[in-house]
Every structure is written in C-alpha cells, then in structure tokens.
Amino acid sequence: MNPLISIIVPVYKVEKYLERCVESLLSQTYQNLELILVDDGSPDRCPEICDAYAKKDERIRVIHQNNAGLSGARNAGIDVAKGEYLAFVDSDDYIASDFIQSLYELLQETGCAIGQCRFAYVQGEPLKKDNNSSVHIYRGESLMERLYGLEEEATYFVVAWNKLYKRELFQEIRYPLGRIHEDEATTYRLFHQGKTLAFSDRALYGYYTENAGSITSVFSRKRLQWLEAHEERIAFFKQNGYEKLLSEAYRKLCDACITFYFRCTEDVEDSAEIRKELKKRLKVYRMEGEKWISTLPLRTRVGYQLFEVLPSLYGKLLKKMQESV
C-alpha cells in the first residue's frame, strides 16, 4: 500500500475560496491522504466549513486554534501529521488532481528528499492540463543556487507550497512564528537537510491572485523581515560551507534595500524612518560583505555607493536605464 501523505492547509479568512481548495484536495488521484485543516482562529464561516468537511470524509482532520499566523498554522499541522510525506497548500489556492501522485512518483523514481513542480497564476479557472515531462535534479550547492535565479524561477524554489517533502526533514525545522516571509527563512534549511530536489516542469499548483501574473503586497515595515531572513541565510551559508553563494546573497540583500527604499513612498507609515534604516542597512551590508561584494561588477558597486549618497539621483538614473531597455 502507498504510504500516508499529509497535506497541511492553514485556514484564515478564506470563506470565499476554502471549498474550492478542499475539493481539489479530495479529488486527488493519490488516495492515501490525511488532510489537516488548521483553522487559525478565522472569524468568518471557515471553522464551520472545516468541520462540515471532516464529517463528510474521514481523511480530514481539523485543528481549531487561536490566531498564530501562517507559520503557527503550518507548525501546528506538522506537529500532528502522521504521514511519511508532507505537503502544504494555501487555502485560497488549488491543485491539479495528480499533484500528489506526480510528486510522490517523482520522489520514488529519483530518490530525492523533495519533489517540486511549477505553479500557475490563476483566477479561479481550472488548471490547464500540463503534459510537460521535463525533470531536473538539483543537489547541494547547485540546489541552493536556485534561490538566486531569475525572479520567477527563484520563486518556484523558495515557496513552501509547490512541494512534497519527506516528513523527516521537519524533525528539527519549523517555520518562524510571528514573521512574514517565513518561506525565505525556512526553505534553504530544508534544502540543506534534504540535499536533493527533483523539479518537474509541470504546472500542478494554482496560485490564486486577483491580478494574475505576479505576487504583490502593500509595503510596510513588516517587509523588512525579508532582510532579516536573508541575514540569517547568509550566516547559515558561512557556517555550512556555502561561501561560493555569498556574493549573490549579499547582492540580493543590497538590491532589496534599494527596492524597498523606493517602494516605501510617503503614504507608508513612518516612511522617513524606514528609508533612513534601509540606507543604514545597505552601508552595513557593504562593509560586512566587502570580501564578496568586491567580486560584483564595478557598475553595481558604484551604484550602491551612489545610492548611499544621493538616492534620488540613483532613482532617476535607474529609471532612465529601465526606459531605454
């Protein structure tokens, strides 16, 4: 008999989308499933919907808890999961009927610890059938490098929810409580623990967005937690022998400071203080990572220096460069 696989679904204020998500889980071709719906103190009808589904299908377990955020909900599911493998699905998203089957078979065929697929931006329509058979296997440092690829490719690798994991990877790893960008703070640790990942180039996961094509969010001070996650990642790289990645890691940190600076417009609360902090952080990163930043192109390094002194001029030059492309 095929092993039990646990699918963990954090649930909070998704009354409009929850049934669509759960139905996609129940229609999986892989049947030996445990569906863990974690009601994270949702104030709408979500708790009732979860309980109703649990009465319909014995494979569904419901956890009701006080609001602990996405990390807290995922962790609660991990703590009680009985499956040999784990998957995460966000409750406003939905998956193809062979999502679990395909990733499980991928792990069996390759012997990898993590299976991953592409995702598609969706607005409620059925996922298109994807017969792409291309599979790529990444190991060790090569796997970590994927986190620094082009934006869309890097997103495939960093997010938690387009993957199937061996349960043992979470023996000592949990998502950080009270923080956003929890994937950025966790996935690289799972990569290090698992060592291998098989990537199926099929879009088996539907990421729901009202504006299909990008993952966007309103800027606030909380976004600086992305920087904290990457500071932790750099420290981890230094401790675990990934020094070849530090040049790109510092570059990504410095670039993020600049991006956040210009996204932090005057209508953002405490915008002046946040911008001041971002300039300070960039200077700290440049000094701390000088050994690795020195290997970046001269234009990039000069750009960082210009931004520190005259961010408005940097912004104008950047805009001109983008318009000329």
What are the key terms here?
325 residues; alpha/beta; Spore Coat Polysaccharide Biosynthesis Protein SpsA, Chain A; nine-stranded mixed beta sheet; 13 helices
Quick synopsis:
With 325 residues, the chain is of the alpha/beta class. Helix content is 45%, strand content 17%.
Report on this structure.
This protein has 325 residues and is an alpha/beta fold. The protein is built from 13 helices and nine strands. It has helices at residues 18-26, 46-56, 69-80, 99-110, 140-145, 151-158, 187-194, 225-239, 246-263, 271-288, 290-293, 298-309, 311-324; strands at residues 5-11, 33-39, 60-64, 85-88, 94-95, 114-122, 135-139, 163-166, 196-208. Strands 1, 2, 3, 4, 5, 6, 7, 8 and 9 form a nine-stranded mixed sheet that branches. α8 (225-239) runs antiparallel to α9 (246-263). The longest helix has 18 residues, at 246-263. It starts with a strand and ends with a helix.
